[in-house]
Amino acid sequence: MSQNSSTEPKAAPVLIQMGIFAAILFVSSLISPLFPANFPVPTPVIGLILLYGLLAFKIIKLEWVEKFADFMIGLIAFLFVPSGIALTASLDVMKDQGIQLIIVIILSTIILLVVVSFVTAGMMWVVKNVFHQNTDISE
């Protein structure tokens, strides 16, 4: 018997994928002002956390957002060009405080990687132990 291609997951249309991202960004824009003024959390960061949670808990399937996400990742280099140009406009700051900036960037990157790894491990543990508990009753 030949396998049917209908068993493979089908990607959502690009407009639906854009709508999912827009809805998540809209919800995160509603959540962002709820944080205190001394601890502002950017809307895109909240959106990333929401999207990660929705994907981890399988509320949204990966194939529903994968194509548009790949497209957006492809634009990252283009989107960072303006910040690179702005950085060259402030070379005097880099000259005066360059070492401190480099140290802060390295430390914050290490802290970010450690926190993300622990949060991911914790989310995986929660999904494995809470949402996929074995419901078989042993005799």
- Discrete helix count: 6
Strand content: under 5%
What would you report as the Rg, rounded to the nearest angstrom? 21 Å
Q: Low-confidence spans: pLDDT under 50, at least 5 residues? A: none
Largest β sheet strand count, sense and barrel closure: none
Structural class: mainly alpha
Residue share in helix: 55-70%
Distance between the termini: 40 Å
Order of helices and strands: HHHHHH
The best one-word shape is: globular
**Arithmetic mean of pLDDT:** 84
* Secondary structure tally: strands: 0
How are the SSEs placed, and which strands pair?
Blueprint: H1 14-31, H2 43-56, H3 66-74, H4 76-79, H5 81-89, H6 91-131
Helix pairs in contact: 1-2
Description of the molecule:
This protein is mainly α. Helices cover 68% and strands 0% of the residues. The protein has six helices and no strands. The protein has helices spanning 14-31, 43-56, 66-74, 76-79, 81-89, 91-131. Helix 1 (14-31) packs across helix 2. The longest helix is centred in the last third of the chain and has 41 residues, at 91-131. The radius of gyration is 21 Å and the shape is globular. The two termini are 40 Å apart. The relative contact order is 0.08. The mean pLDDT is 84.
